[in-house]
Amino acid sequence: MIFLAQLALRNLRRNLGRSVIIGLIVVAGVFLQILGWGLVDGLDENILRAARNGVTSDILLRPEGYPTDGLSYPLDQTRPPPDLSTALPDASVSARTLFVGRLVKGAEASRVTGIAYERAADAACFPRENWKLEGAWPEPGADAIVLGDRLAALLEVKVGDSVVLQTRTVDGAQNAYTYTVTGLVHTDNNALDNLGAWLEMEAADRLLTVGARRSHVAVNLPPFADSAAAKARLGGLGWTARTVEEEMADFIAINKIRRAALVILVGIIMIIAALGIAITVMMAAYERVREIGTLLSMGMKRREVSLMFLFEGLVLGIAAGAAGAALGVLAVRHWQETGIYLGDAVMKTGKDLPMSAYVYTRFAWGPVATALGFSTVISTLASFFPARMASTLNPADAVRAT
Amino acid sequence: MPLLCELANVRKDYPMGDLVVQALKGVSVAVTAGEFTAFAGPSGSGKSTCLNLIGCLDRPDAGEVRVEGRNVAAMGDGELGEVRAKRIGFIFQSFNLIPVLTAFENVELALRLAGVTAERKERVERALGDVGLADYMHRRPNQLSGGQQQRVAIARALVKGPALIIADEPTANLDSKNGAAILDLMKQMNERDGATFLFSTHDPMVMERARRVVRLHDGEIVGDEVRS
Predict the structure, then answer these.
(1) Least CB-CB distance to B100: which of A7, A296, A301?
(2) Fewer CB within 10 Å, N side or C side of chain A?
(3) What is the pLDDT of residue B161?
């Protein structure tokens, strides 16, 4: 068996150019499969992390009937937040009021999503990992505001500038208030960077006049808590609870389509690779008819001849698969640390994308094992027919082949 | 000398499209151990077909082929392979060495396939030494001349100590000097070790050196001459 494998290796070296070309296709297929999987997993994680960090935490509650489209925040549907201390005694809770406004700086103006929050509760509820703040968060009671850095760049606002925030009050009256910009924040959420304006509840209430009414209640659960079970305990409050996964379901569903497209793409590449391996092994069998005849005449068993050619396909598939897997693992691990920057153009186009401009790939052994298994199975199947064909030659004819 | 192999009223046909070519038309011949016999005749006379049948590479359509008493037609593929691996050595017109193996490995391959594990290295070195290639053991076939390649093929055929060595036009691809040297070597092995050699040829120089010449024409034996 070892000898047959050695023979297969030497025969592959004999047609090195051909083996390398087919091997490269397998390398590309396996590499793309692992990287693509890591990227799509990373996108899922990116979207969920961005939501957890600044928008939904683990569970988000809205008053019943309140829209969930993320485009309108009707103040007339706000209501006093429920007391969750009995249902979820270990959770951190932040009640917020979100509103749509217009931020004016000189002659420039832009639509914003206002986030009115209570500092201590919000800090306990939203991890804000990897957020970068230039300046400071507003002190309670101060007429201060923090803006997303892309929004600030659009309006050419700097820390210390004054801006006017226009919106409607809870009663539907037009109102405007001047705030001092105390900070510019770069979050991991493109929508917040482009549209977000944070202000303390007390300062926001002077503009909105909502009093104790709130539009959203975010719940941060202890580590490893079951969010579905926690959500189940939030019934009958007059508020609708959704987990972060449910909140982001549309985006995750798009990623499922991406994953399906990836499977199709990799499938096509692997079919090309399989055909390549089949042709390589078949050409090797045709080119070596006399050699096969010699081996058979010397007493090599038909099964061994078949195995020899099967090994050639397998060695090619496994070696190239391993190389592709190694490259894939390196790439996924690298971009897991550094992230892939999607570019300003993408972020400007997708202003409302609730995700970071940096996509961090996610490494898992599952896709690596799947890709390697796939390339091994494909190369075995591709080699099987030519190997069988080689083993059925008549030695008396084969030995005289030219 | 004991009977080694025997063809009794053997027929062999080859379909060629709509036609059937009768390669052997009822050939009978017996070979005893230790012979140095040439099957001679023009192209298409049936000499290679005879050797294929004796060499267990093919089965007859009619008649009986016996090798060391065993009926070839009654043996399965596996049994035929085992007989070829252990009892028969082949030398081919085009040398037929495995190009990715060295001279040493080509000869060793015959022992591997025969299931020999003991003293393999020593036996291979001795066989290559016997054919004068002790210094060329680690060369690949493409680094050897035609004459040297055929010597490796002889060493490969002889190394396992077979009962019978079948050589299909062994000098056809060699110049006269190398051809003569190869025949001398084969004859020397025949005389020294008692190895039985059957070879096909249409070269008069080769026939001259054989101790027995079986002449074939159009699938029939037309002469069987034993020389002293």
Answers:
(1) A7
(2) C
(3) 84
Q: Residue A185 in contact with residue A120, Cβ under 8 Å?
A: no
CA dihedral (A116, A119, A120, A125) positive or negative: positive
Q: Which residue has the tokens 């083993």?
A: A391
Q: How far is CA A18 from CA A15, A23, A284, A318, in A?
A: 6, 8, 10, 16
| Other beta carbons less than 10 A from residue B192's beta carbon | 9
Q: What's the topology of domain B33-57+76-226?
A: Rossmann fold (3.40.50)
Give yes or no for a contact between B59 and B32, defined as CB atoms under 8 angstroms apart: no
| Tokens (6 digits) for A275 | 């055909």
Q: pTM for the full model? A: 0.74
B118, B119, B123, B125: CA torsion to nearest 10: 140
- At residue A35, the 3 state secondary structure works out as helix
SS3 A315: helix
Q: How far is B80 from chain A (nearest CA, A)?
A: 8
Q: Are strands A162-168 and A108-117 parallel, antiparallel or unpaired?
A: unpaired
Closest chain A C-alpha to B161 CA, distance in angstroms:
13
**Would strands A92-105 and A162-168 be described as parallel, antiparallel, or unpaired?**
antiparallel
Taking every pair of Cα atoms in chain B, the longest distance, rounded to a whole number of angstroms, is: 53
Distance CA B197, CA B54 (A): 12
What percent of chain A clears pLDDT 90, i.e. is strictly above it?
47
Q: Do A294 and B98 touch (CB under 8 A)?
A: yes
Domain map (residue ranges) of chain B: 33-57+76-226
Sign, Cα dihedral of A186, A188, A194, A198 = negative
How much is the average pLDDT of A99-111? 93
Whether A395 sits inside 8 A of B90 (CB atoms) is no
A186-208 pLDDT, tens digit each: 998 888 999 999 999 999 999 99
Q: Give the 3-state DSSP-derived string for A296-314, with helices as H, strands as E and coil as C.
A: HHCCCCHHHHHHHHHHHHH
Contacts of B54 (CB under 8 A, 6+ apart): B5, B7, B31, B65, B67, B164, B166, B198
- For residue B109, list chain A residues with Cβ-Cβ distance below 8 A: 298
- Maximum separation of any 2 CA atoms in chain A, in Å: 100
Cβ pair A183, A135 in contact under 8 A: yes
Would you list the domain boundaries of chain A? Answer: 2-50+251-398, 58-244
Would you call A133 helix, strand, or coil by DSSP?
A: strand
Q: Each residue of B59-104: pLDDT tens digit?
A: 999 999 999 889 988 888 889 999 999 999 998 888 889 999 999 9
Over residues B16-41, the mean pLDDT reads 90
